[in-house]
Design goal:
There is one protein chain. The chain is built from 8 helices and 12 strands. A 10-stranded mixed β-sheet has the order 8-6-7-3-2-9-10-1-11-12, sandwiched between helices. A two-stranded antiparallel sheet has the order 4-5. The chain starts with a strand and ends in an 8-residue tail after the last strand. By secondary structure, the protein is of the alpha/beta class. The protein has a single domain, classed as 3-Layer(aba) Sandwich (Rossmann fold), CATH 3.40.50. Strand 2, helix 1 and strand 3 form a beta-alpha-beta unit. Helix 1 packs across helix 2. The site of S-adenosylmethionine has 22 residues, from strand 10.
């Protein structure tokens, strides 16, 4: 079966290119507010970040099919000595938009992976109370649902699609997918990796979520596409996909990622929204595209690129 993958270069706070209830699963990882290593000063302040998530949550409710699932990979973030409750706030905003809170998986990275290792070392220098700052080796995978899934819908699905969507019970048991803690290695900082400079998540995360919450031939959305990890996995698993990305400079990397698997019958389309005159926040550090949270949403097809 051939699949279609559409990348819109524009702000995901509105996703007007997508029809109502035409998405069966969202898997995404937004910027973690102004994460010091990846997105310093991306947002003017925390309220601006929350406003983006709130707009997204409401439009997501529109595009997601009834009963379907939306997953955020995210974490609380320490910025200039203050810890921001990103996980709690995304949960609240998703509930406010009408979603049900279904589950939280804790993604645990290997112990060797510590970016701010000097944090916990303070106690070694000052072995007294009040110097404790632990190193973080986990993130949250928040799972929300739009109402409840109607299992009678399975009768309408093509039996071939159902059989291709079968979950491997071997993986489910051996890799402990059934637990609320998933031990998964993060993207390793190899020199030749495509995701250099992008806070990419490992393929294993969208792989599990896509297998667990969508059927073969359905459509997956990633509104913060980054290097295109979700899209690549969707392509590999025979799902269609939509992605939004504000940084036009990532087109080459996304294209490379999707080209990677030869022999897959899929088509990739890049759509560029018309850039408004005014530009403002929410632009990644690498380059400041002329789009703001409130950018024009009229899609204009400037480039259509196909890979077979
Ligand atoms: C954490 S990264 C996503 C990484 C992705 N999961 C991957 O594996 O490559 C977040 C991405 O969201 C993009 N972004 C930030 N604000 C955006 C917005 N308002 N609309 C669309 N994309 C946005 C950033 O440019 C960045 O590439």
């Amino acid at each position: 079966m051939s699949t279609v993958h559409r990348v819109v270069f524009g702000n995901c706070m509105t996703m007007k290119e997508i029809h109502d209830e035409s998405i069966q699963l969202m898997v995404t990882s937004p910027p973690y507010y102004n994460a010091p290593f990846d997105y310093p000063n991306l947002f003017k302040n925390y309220d601006e970040f929350l406003s983006l998530i709130s707009y997204l949550a409401h439009d997501l409710y529109r595009v997601l099919a009834p009963g379907r699932v939306a997953c955020f990979v995210t974490d609380d973030m320490l910025v200039k000595g203050e810890k921001y409750p990103v996980v709690a706030d995304i949960t609240r905003l998703m509930l406010d938009a009408g979603f049900r809170y279904r589950d939280r998986i804790v993604w645990v990275k290997p112990k060797g992976y510590v970016r701010i290792s000097r944090r916990s070392g303070v106690v070694i220098q000052h072995p007294y109370p009040m110097y404790y700052y632990p190193d973080n080796i986990h993130e949250s995978i928040l799972i929300f649902q739009k109402g409840r899934f109607d299992y009678s819908h399975l009768r309408e699905l093509d039996p071939k699609s159902i059989s291709k969507s079968k979950i491997s019970i071997y993986d489910y048991h051996n890799q402990e997918w059934y637990l609320t803690v998933w031990n998964i290695t993060n993207v390793l900082p190899l020199r030749e990796r495509l995701e250099k400079g992008i806070a990419a998540f490992p393929e294993e995360i969208p792989k599990r979520l896509i297998k667990l919450f969508s059927f073969h031939g359905e459509t997956v959305l990633d509104p913060f596409l980054g290097s295109g990890t979700t899209m690549r996995v969707a392509q590999e698993l025979g799902r269609n996909s939509w992605g939004y990305e504000i940084d036009r400079g990532l087109k080459k990397i996304i294209a490379q990622k999707l080209e990677y698997k030869h022999g897959l019958d899929s088509r990739v389309e890049f759509l560029f929204r018309r850039a408004p005159k005014e530009s403002r926040a929410s632009a990644p550090r690498r380059q400041r595209p002329s789009l703001s949270h409130r950018d024009a949403v009229t899609p204009r097809l400037r480039c259509l690129q196909l890979f077979q």
